Every structure is written in structure tokens, then in C-alpha cells.
Protein: Lipoprotein signal peptidase
Organism: Idiomarina seosinensis
Amino acid sequence: MDKVRNAVLPNDTLKKRASGLRYLWVTVLLVVIDQLTKVWVAAEYELYESRAVIDGLFNFTYVHNYGAAFSFLSDSGGWQRWLFTAIAIAISAVLLIWLRRNPVNFWRQNLSFALILSGAIGNVADRLMYGYVIDFLDVHYQGWHWPAFNVADMAITIGAALMLFEAFVDNRRDDEENSK
């Protein structure tokens, strides 16, 4: 049977059919971790409660973010919920299309898309279920505080950084080296 399949579809064709959608396991795993951590924080903490994890550097602080990154537009009356939800859904659709079109061996780009997709889905789930995003990771140092964030935000940030890195690396060169 394999000889017949290989005669009809050579190995090169079979490899090309494998797409970046194989990286969706990363997306699913991170969405689950993101949602579980948010459920845990909402159950264990009172709103605005803060507990030191690493004294003077890192806290768990339960907050609601009605805006986007850095609470952008958080006090705009509610319309921003739907704007950010629509943007995240549109970006998610584009990332899924790119993942489908990408060869599986474009691992850096596929991984970056999967990470960004997981963050978008995690935060959209919050906006749809609660009307806000649950943030709880609080980094600070000597009175300076980074805005609270969550696992989905970390995935988006790491995915964007990887995407920038990948932009400077030519995947086709990797393909040529691997085929030798």
C-alpha cells in the first residue's frame, strides 16, 4: 500500500502537504493553562488582592482589565470590549490561514503564530465570558510596577518576539540545508 501511495504522491509532495496547523497543540495547551490560571486566581483572590511571590519583585495581584494592553481604553464605557474582541477574532482567522498555508518545517513562524493565537483566544474567551480580561502577574521593582498581565499576554509577547526574530532568518535557507 505504501508503494502505491508513494508512487502517486512522492515524498516531497507528502512533506509539502503537512502544514503549520500541526502547531495548534501549542495553542490548545496554552489556552487551557491560561484559562485554568485565571479560574484559580478568581477563586482564590479577592479583586485587587495582592500576595508576594518574590518579595520586592513579583506578586500575584488579581485585577480586571477592561481595555487592551496596559489597560488602553479601559475606561471607555464598554464599546472597547467588542472592538478588541473583533480585532482578536480577525487576527486569529488570519493566523489560522497562515498556519494552514505554511509548510510544517517553518517552525519558528508556525510557533510564533501558535503562541499569538493562543493569547488572542485566551483573552477573547475572558472578554466574552466576563466582559474583561483577568490579569494577575505583577512585576515590580523599587516602586516601579509593570502593568499586570496573564499567561495569554506572555504568549502574545513571546510569539511577537519570535516573529520578529524569524523575520531576520530565512526559512528557505534552512530548507536547503536540511535537504542536503
About this structure: The two ends are 28 Å apart (CA to CA). The first strand starts at residue 50 and ends at 54.
